[in-house]
Write a structure and sequence with these properties.
Blueprint (H helix, E strand, L loop, with lengths): L15 H22 L12 H19 L13 H24 L8 H22 L2 H15 L14 H10 L7 H22 L2 H13 L5 H17 L2 H19 L3 H13 L10 H10 L3 H30 L12 H8 L3 H13 L4 H16 L9 H35 L1 H12 L4 H16 L4 H11 L1 H6 L4 H14 L8 H10 L3 H11 L1 H12 L9 H23 L8 H13 L6 H38 L1
């Protein structure tokens, strides 16, 4: 569920005893997280601190990174240098110290003993180096100045001036305090995300990925532009399992992009469709991206409440994408896939019905039984392996099960180290007091205007997201900007979903849109054309967050009548908007008609004021319907005239 998977070229290809050790560490990391998510520790009679588990998890993460990941891409693949052995042992030491000693540490947290700040300093350096290896320098260069600010805040002028801290206090705080390394982000990764990554890998181990693709073919293959619609459905289904746009593009795009190109879609359009569809996996319930689980923890609400609130905006996102894909197919004269390439529904269901069981188990335990997300995820993992064993075609082998456990550990590495790094950032902000000062600064800059503050937040979210994973962007904004949005009266859930959306949009917004870049590479398409097309296809995601902030009915907050009216008008408005930006309805549209159709769509988007909303809706529906009737009439006359010419 990471937003940026560590490039495979950075992983070593080990043999012999080192390879066995590397696999053992990765498997131990996954199994440890799985057991914790299943709450096995509650069965023991002795007191076991959460921080002790996080310390052991952290130790395995650092050791696994320094054993498995090269310091530089050019380094030898099959040899572990002596210094990486040393770093792996150091990682086991700093995590093991917390795992063993935390019962004593907890009662003497303010004591600045030498071993604490020495081990804390080593832990911080190890996190920075591990982060550099798995996701590059960008996060390191952002984190180091933040830590230095916490030390030297007394040198800054005006509102940024603060007391600062000694190195011993700063390092010990970041290492051992609940707002530091072992804080909320790492806790969510170690107790929730591990279960959902494992679920995705379990599905692959029993052939669930082929079932998802076949279902998409059955549902959408025969319609015009069928290959693109298959790409959207399959990427959405994959996305609800992985929650990672880049992982979706790499796994699903390798199949769907060539299909789209073969059917007649231009390479840049195929790349854009796959990137936008894959990116939507982060916002599509029932399983969203990592940030959604963090959001539930930050807001102290259930994950089910977050998923329910995200449902309508996510559906609007895909309504816009489907509408534009269909119109693009009509514009290009594309038809559906040949029947010979579409599997029979009865064959797909006969072979793959078992995969519906774990998905149903996940939805039930999350949404209705209100289990903890990690426990619900593990229930889905267990259900996947059990139902997979019912049929010979899907029965997992011991090798495939071990492979899924190992691959889960490998994917966890970058998520875990990035969330540990996020703990450093949060801790430094909390210790320096910058969290509260920045909220005040933002509100003052916006002049108390909610809309200006939202625009500033959206711009900052996209800019930060161009160099950072969505998860880290969300964490930073939740700490820095969240209080400012709440301070001006925006409901906390709407505020957090707002910058979650814009952090996610950075993955398809040029110039540094990594999901689009990955898709363009597979499609061998022009990156810039792919990027701008992706922005057009994902246009709703740039608008809807501003809407649900002022109209909470789109987040399922309100009476049934308000929610129903908001859904109906929003869907119609999104369709009109999509027609306008696509530039096609029954025939190609000129710029004036496109502008009018876009205007009709925007007028149908819900607003905060009921009277304004009803008035705008009335104008929008009349304008949109008039344009549709006029275009249908014009296209019909044109078709009749062409038919007469052919007859003559």
């Amino acid at each position: 569920m990471s937003d940026d998977l560590a490039p495979t070229t950075k992983f070593r290809s080990l043999t012999g005893a080192p390879a066995k050790l590397a696999r053992l560490l990765l498997c131990a990391l996954t199994l440890l997280g799985a057991l914790w998510a299943l709450e096995i520790h509650d069965a023991f009679s002795w007191t076991f601190f959460k921080e002790q588990y996080l310390g052991l998890f952290f130790a395995l993460v650092l050791a696994s990174i320094f054993i498995n990941v090269k310091a530089r891409a050019a380094d030898t693949d099959d040899v572990i240098p002596w210094h990486d052995w040393f770093l792996a042992i150091a990682g086991l030491t700093v995590g093991g110290y917390v795992a063993v000693m935390y019962p004593i540490i907890a009662y003497r947290l303010g004591v600045l003993s030498p071993e604490r700040w020495i081990l804390g300093g080593i832990a911080i350096l190890l996190i920075l180096e591990a982060t550099r290896r798995v996701v590059g320098w960008a996060l390191v260069w952002i984190t180091v100045p933040i830590i230095l600010y916490a030390k030297f805040a007394y040198l800054f002028p005006g509102i940024l001036n603060a007391n600062g801290s000694s190195w011993q206090r700063l390092v010990s705080y970041l290492y051992l305090d609940s707002s530091g390394i072992f804080g909320l982000p790492l806790n969510v990764a170690a107790s929730v995300i591990v279960a959902f990554i494992f679920f995705g890998q379990a599905l692959y181990a029993v052939g669930g990925d082929k079932f998802l693709t076949d279902i998409a073919l059955v549902l959408m293959g025969r319609f015009r532009g069928g290959t693109a619609k298959v790409a959207v459905v399959s990427s959405t289904l994959f996305g609800t399992v992985s929650g990672s746009a880049v992982a979706n593009v790499v796994v699903d795009g390798a199949i769907t992009i060539p299909m789209m190109k073969k059917s007649g879609y231009p390479p840049h359009v195929a790349a854009a469709i796959e990137a936008v569809a894959s990116n939507g996996g982060q916002i599509m319930p029932p399983v969203m991206g990592v940030a959604a689980f963090l959001m539930a923890e930050f807001l102290n609400i259930s994950y089910g409440e977050v998923a329910l609130a995200a449902a309508i905006p996510a559906c609007l996102y895909y309504v816009a994408l489907f509408t534009q894909i269909d119109l693009e197919a009509a514009k290009l004269g594309l038809v559906g896939m040949p029947e010979s390439e579409i599997p029979l529904l009865r064959d797909v269901i006969k072979r793959g019905w078992v995969f519906l069981v774990p998905l149903a188990a996940l939805i039930y335990t999350l949404m209705f039984a209100f289990w903890e997300p990690g426990k619900a995820g593990m229930a889905a993992v267990i259900a996947t392996f059990l139902v997979g064993a019912l049929q010979k075609e899907t029965r997992p082998t011991l090798k495939s099960i071990l492979g899924s456990i190992e691959e889960t550990g490998k994917i966890l590495l970058d998520i875990a180290v990035v969330t540990a790094l996020a703990g450093l950032v949060i801790g430094a902000f909390q210790l320096s007091g910058l969290t509260f000062k920045l909220a005040l600064l933002l509100v003052n800059t916006a002049g108390g205007s909610t809309i200006i503050l939202l625009i500033l937040t959206a711009v900052v979210s996209i800019i930060l997201g161009m160099s950072l994973p969505t998860t880290v962007v969300y964490i930073m904004l939740a700490v820095l900007v969240g209080p400012a949005l709440v301070q001006v009266g925006i409901p906390p859930l709407a505020a957090h979903l707002f910058f979650f959306y814009f952090g996610m949009l950075s993955l398809i917004t040029p110039p540094d849109c990594i999901a689009t870049y990955a898709a363009a590479s597979i499609a061998r398409a022009d990156f810039w054309k792919s990027g701008w097309t992706g922005m057009r296809l994902g246009i709703v995601a740039y608008i809807v967050p501003f809407v649900f902030v002022f109209h909470p009915a789109l987040l399922f907050k309100g009476t049934p009548v308000e929610i129903g009216a908001a859904i109906i008008t929003a869907v119609i408005g999104v369709i009109f908007l999509s027609v306008g930006v696509a530039g096609y309805l029954f025939q190609r549209l000129g710029w004036i008609k496109r502008v009018l159709m876009i205007s009709a769509g925007l007028l149908l988007i819900p607003s905060a004021s009921t009277s304004l909303w009803l008035g705008a809706n009335s104008v929008g529906i009349l304008l949109g319907v008039a344009l549709v009737i006029a275009e249908w009439s014009s296209a019909s006359k044109h078709a009749i005239s062409l038919a007469n010419v052919d007859q003559s």
